[in-house]
Amino acid sequence: MKNTEQFRPTRLLTKPEAARFLGISNHTLDRLVAQGIVAIVRLGGTRRFIMDDLLETIKQNRFGGDG
Fold first, then answer.
1. What predicted TM-score, i.e. pTM, was given to this entire model?
2. SS3 for 21-55, per residue?
3. Over 90: is that where the pLDDT of 6 sits?
């Protein structure tokens, strides 16, 4: 039986890319990571941000409207 789940590549962002995507400074992004609001992935000595995690953070921190 074949695996029917389709592979979807994970988009990893650097800190400057993630900060730019969120429209915040690198310093603010560092603060949000320290507060546990934004998740990171540690790969060796580097930190990366998963695009889907950033989108979920935006969704979870949305206020107002119907959503």
1. 0.79
2. HHCCCHHHHHHHHHCCCCCCEEECCEEEEEHHHHH
3. no
